[in-house]
Amino acid sequence: MRRETVEIRVPTLGESVTEATVARWFKAAGDQVAADEPLLELETDKVSLEVPAPAAGVLSEIAVEEGAEVEVGAVLGMIEEGGQAAPAPKAEPAKAADTKEETPAGDGAPADAAGDKPAAEAKPAAGEPGKQAGPAARKAAAESGVDIASIQGTGPKGNVTKADVKAQPAPVEAKASEPKPEKAPTPFPAGQAGGGREERVRMTRLRKRVAERLKEAQNTAAMLTTFNEVDMSALMNLRKRWQDDFVKKHGTKLGFMSPFVKASIEALKAFPAANAEIDGDEIVYKYYYDIGIAVSTDTGLVVPVLRGADRMGLADIEKGIAALGQKARGGKLAMEDLQGGTFSITNGGIFGSMLSTPILNPPQVAILGMHNIVERPVVKNGQVVTAPIMYVALSYDHRIIDGREAVSFLVRVKQCLETPERMLLDV
Question: Domains (ranges, CATH) in the chain?
């Protein structure tokens, strides 16, 4: 019976996204796959996404290697629909002439062809049926001079992956004329090929796009930053007093981000230019408040958007931010999660930052930077006392936001946070 072959193609990636990079294959050629099972991961300049199998069968061909760039609609590989993966061949029994007393592993003597295991459990060499190595793994092995047949694979069905190859120590070729060193040389840190002191790693598509956008913001906007300080005493006391009741009712903790979102929205309403954007020679004022929350991930900085934040209570904001952060760190953000923000907030304080100048997230014209909280001496009622102080920063596009508006914006944020009842009383 003739089996149908199904193409695996690059899906639609979202608005204005036409290219992606093949980040990794989860399967090797010859593997059995189920319908809708994730086959590979694509990385765009905004998100990473998994490509599922369009049919059940055998992955008969991988057409594009890891690291390659592909366009929407390009063929990534082929599935033989309804096929079965080839069974691993049985090893031939050892010949009588080869039955020697085996040397225990680690004694430095060579083992039999099947190692110190029974012949039936022997692993075939790379390139032979039963031990698969993807194109990226074979390329990495060739570049580093590692014998791929000696690698214990950690991929599906024991397949050797690129990561398995990278984890192997680089082979050292000793010259016969050179004396053996009396003392082993000091090893270099892991990941430095061949004992070198540099490592060259290809930038991810996401990180390249982030770099382009940040540089674009610097080159395009007339960007300035203004600073202020916030006495966090009232907000910290509020959290301490009501935290237990808040958790019991809402099932989430009251953090600092939700009050900052609320305070920012109050300031955006008072100074609409900070919630606008420039379109040609026009200013587009927006009277909705979709707040971008910067999240640092292993692949780069992303800014998922909390939509309709002005209609949310503190609990809903905390839950929404937590959900977006979890999706970001798990690589599960969808394209719509990153589009349409009107204003952004970034919190360098979680990494210990005292002060910074955040860069705009185009086409937005303002971004608020939060920092760490430190006990500092302040003057209250003529007395020098200590108080938990956070420095805050507002970077803004001076083309449409004047210095007076920027300073007044931060003062409004400061007032809302130092006297939280203002946000309840709308004063």
Answer: 5-81 (2.40.50.100), 205-425 (3.30.559.10)
Model pLDDT, residue 67: 83
Of 98, 116, 244, 398, the active-site residue reads: 398
The first and second tokens of residue 423, run together, are: 């946000």
Q: What does pTM read for this prediction?
A: 0.61
Phi, psi of 117 (to 5 degrees): -110, 160
CB atoms within 10 A of CB 271: 20
Do 213 and 306 meet the contact criterion of CB atoms below 8 Å apart? no
Q: Are 396 and 361 in contact (CB under 8 A)?
A: no
Q: What is the DSSP letter of 275?
A: G
Rounded to the nearest 10 degrees, the angle between the axes of helix 314-329 and helix 257-270 is: 110
Whose tokens are 């507002």? That residue is: 394
- Judge whether 44 and 54 are in contact, CB under 8 Å: no
Q: Look up 112 and say whether it is catalytic.
A: no
Q: Is 402 a catalytic residue?
A: yes
Residue 155 pLDDT: 67
Q: Token pair of 401, please?
A: 């936001």
Asked whether the predicted pLDDT for residue 166 surpasses 60, the reply is yes
